Amino acid sequence: MEGNNNWKYLIKEETVSGLTTLLLDIKNNHNQDELIEKIKDLETQISKLQKTKKYWLVWEMEKEPEQIVLDCQRKLPILKEVKDKFLKSDESWKANILIEWDNFHALQVLNYTHKESIDLIYIDPPYNTWNANEWKYNDKYIDDNDTYRHSKWLNFMSKRLTLSKELLKENWLIFISIDDNEQAQLKLLCDEIFWSDNFIANIIWQSKTWSSDAKGIDTITEYILVYAKNKLLPEFTKNADWYDKKRYKLRDEYFSERWPYYLDNLDRWWLRYHDSLNYAISIPDWSSIFPNWRSEFLNDGWTWKWWRQKVKWWLENGYIIFKKSKSKNNWWWVYYKNYLYSDNEGNLLERWTPHKNVISNLKTWDGASSIKNIFWFHVFKYSKPTELIKYFIKSVNLPKDAIILDYFAWSWTTWHSVLELNKEYWLDLKFIICTNNEWNICEEVTFERIKKVSKGYSNDKWAKTEWLGWNLKYYKTDFVEVENVQLIDDKQKLELTYKAWEVIAIKEWTYHEISKTPYFQFFENNKKLVWIYFIESSKWMDQFKNTLKQLSKSKNESVIYIFSYSEPEYSCKDFNVPNLRIEWIPEPILKIYKELNKKI
């Protein structure tokens, strides 16, 4: 320690680092006078720190650790398909994914299958209200008698938000519904996880019009916090909902370009009358009409709004419409169309405003009613309306085949919204949803909702909705038991490889199994072929290569997952197959699980 003058530890900035360094010095230092001096200095810094005003979120993290998280130190989560719940709506190779079980386990698996692959996340977590039976922590319902309920909620949310951040692509967003019970804490938590610089908006949603039990000031709003992984990268769409829908409500064959329109009379009375605007227009009954329903030229002060050449162009391009009078024989009304995105010269307009952080035209009751239409009774008193989730998705310029994730999908509103958007806008959006099965809600409510909506359902005694399609794969989490996730023996590595084949199929979007032997397994979609080679041995490799060569001829891409205790020696040249990619298992899966367990 002689000559070392750098032993003042900046506890204020780096408390843990300072204490760790101090303890190391204490272990190696035998000069008691110097130790006493260091301890006094440390006490002085602690005293200053206690008097300093702090601005960060602090909660009791270790008062009661979450058991599900602790279990992952000795359990490796995998996914197993529930085959009798496969929903097949068409013959395509595409499928959406439902994962039933705790979302912490699901997010761990998705960190292997979909790391930096998700385009948008929407979640509706428990609000941590004073209501009993709302949410559980360590298998116990949290109520207002629990003095650590805020800490438990933050502990619960911080781990899941940390895991889900890794799933987002660099240029996309997460939307989080919340109310006043945890909004302030959640904002600080998200500032910490996603960084405050990536905060986009706190959307205020008027979720109801009034409360029957309100006293003093009636709370009728909830919030949606919006964060980006990188605030500079997301592209927002034009706000298509800014205009007056009661006025611009008519559509025609030009809607995709000109958008909706309203009608206005083509003739009018002018103070500045001019003969050039007083002329005959041919109408559908092959006669002619002058302004003010006249059948002949007359100066009564009435004219057409535009000159003859312009009206002729309007007639040829669908801007004029004729309507026969219901009250007067042989009378015709002549209207022109005022399009939202086209002026009277036929030029397309750029009319739009930014999306606002206030939503007032959608209510919780709309969501509850939507679900009631499906089941014929009220399943949920509070449920987000599909139009709300659709608005969030439409607010960003997502790719047509974007992947949407919801890992608090108890009512499946996100899934329903995605399917409706696919149908309305000819998109190819995919979804991954995760939920537990508390009170059999996944099997008896959410899964039933997707069945009904996918295939079409009767929403009253006479009407049947149109089917929304898409296939669904239903998975539950399973586990490979280990003593310590950081120390996996060879037998457990092989067990993980055999059990992880469905995880690999999800990662590659290849759900159709061709064949399986004790030594290798094959999957495919319409463009890709995937193999898993289970044995670290050359004994079966020749047979494997021959099968691979035959099956790969009809595919654009081939992928081999080779089991190995260490990095495999094979390369693409060893297989003589075009467009081949080789992956190693199970070490990349284990590496992600180990890193996640250290991080949380």
TrEMBL record:
Instruction: Name a single GO biological process.
Output: methylation
Top-level taxon in the UniProt lineage? Bacteria
Family matches, as SUPFAM superfamilies: S-adenosyl-L-methionine-dependent methyltransferases
**Does this entry carry the keyword Plastid?**
no
Please give the InterPro entries that the UniProt record associates with this protein: DNA_methylase_N4/N6, DNA_methylase_N6_adenine_CS, N4/N6-MTase_EcoPI_Mod-like, SAM-dependent_MTases_sf
Limits of the DNA methylase N-4/N-6 domain: 118-442
GO terms, molecular function: DNA binding; N-methyltransferase activity
Q: Does the keyword section mention Transferase? A: yes
Q: Which Pfam families match?
A: N6_N4_Mtase
What keywords were assigned to this record? Methyltransferase, S-adenosyl-L-methionine, Transferase
Q: In which family does this protein belong, per the annotation? A: Belongs to the N(4)/N(6)-methyltransferase family.
Q: What is this protein called?
A: Methyltransferase
